[in-house]
């Protein structure tokens, strides 16, 4: 399908002149600048596109203006020593209705992912994550979503889809292709005990801000397990990211956000990334857009440092460990990559649930292996086992 019909080219005056800036990102990215010269994404690694859509935003009108401001900061950053193969497809022509925009985003992502291209979506509001998710339904793949967010965005069953309810709509969507959802960095005073209990009943993973910040290394297995990473800029503290009407005093620091995104880029499983809720109307000297640009830089840095060491594809290059948990009458099999020293653990699944094959090797850390050695059940293993058992 010709997806060029969905896009408007970038402003040539604003984004067309990087030839004299040889070491800039703008000079190495192929940009859609002229109507009749839509870039090919054949053989491309990463495709960036903006979605200037905020009709689904909650108290953050104006976040539709973010894509071009982020680009301006991103294109000015310096290149690293990588064989960049990246295109910027420009900005999506938003639909007559919000549903039309969702449908367009889904179609574009399907076409890109079929070609093995990693889509990087510049929002816009975070409800666009729903459109990202539906793309996997079209590809008939069960999917894991990780969301860096101060809240869960479950909403209520009666509520229309918006940036505060999109997760609830994903959970209720039929047919359902969601295997797991992980929230990274929630703040308890924004979610309430009832929502935490609901997340537990759904066997979803939720990690408090303080828990994650106390050991940032443990966030790596969480994002390594994600097909989609959705990043709400509200998860970053206002002092570091003021460009958001819903910004609050607490949250991740900018460098922590960059670390999370780099971990995601390094994951061979990640096939979609979106950054949302940045509002230039509330920004201070474009500080938030500049941080978003640096986050995308780190995503790309992670991508070009992928190790291609997923044990699902080949068991060569891995050390296998078996740990018996006598009190649970269970044996857990661990794999450690000799390339990256990253860990996975094997979760058994019934032969009649083939759709879960790609999820039965769960990314974990050395700490999970140590937990098993103490004859304690690793929480990650138990969560995945329960999810497969009840699905």
Mind sketching the topology for me?
Elements (H helix, E strand, L loop, with lengths): L6 E2 L3 H4 L9 H4 L1 E2 L14 E5 L15 H10 L10 E7 L5 H17 L3 E5 L5 H11 L4 E6 L17 H7 L5 E9 L6 H9 L3 E4 H6 L4 H6 L3 E5 L21 H13 L5 E5 L10 H17 L14 E8 L4 E8 L5 E4 L14 E4 L1 H8 L5 H12 L1
Parallel strand pairs: 2-4, 3-4, 3-5, 5-10, 6-7, 6-9, 7-8, 9-10
Antiparallel strand pairs: 1-4, 11-12, 12-13, 13-14
List keywords for this structure.
391 residues, alpha/beta, ten-stranded mixed sheet, 32% helix, globular
Kindly describe this structure.
The protein is α/β, with parallel strands linked by helices. It is 32% helix and 19% strand. The protein has 13 helices and 14 strands. The strands form 2 sheets. Strands 1, 2, 3, 4, 5, 6, 7, 8, 9 and 10 form a 10-stranded mixed β-sheet that branches. The longest helix is centred in the N-terminal third of the chain and has 17 residues, at 98-114. It is globular. The model has no long low-confidence stretch (mean pLDDT 95).
What does the overall shape look like? globular
Biggest sheet overview: 10 strands, mixed
Strand fraction band? 15-25%
Coarse structural class: alpha/beta
How do you describe this structure in short?
With 391 residues, the chain is α/β, with parallel strands linked by helices. It has helices spanning 12-15, 25-28, 66-75, 98-114, 128-138, 166-172, 193-201, 209-214, 219-224, 254-266, 287-303, 366-373, 379-390; strands at 7-8, 30-31, 46-50, 86-92, 118-122, 143-148, 178-186, 205-208, 228-232, 272-276, 318-325, 330-337, 343-346, 361-364.
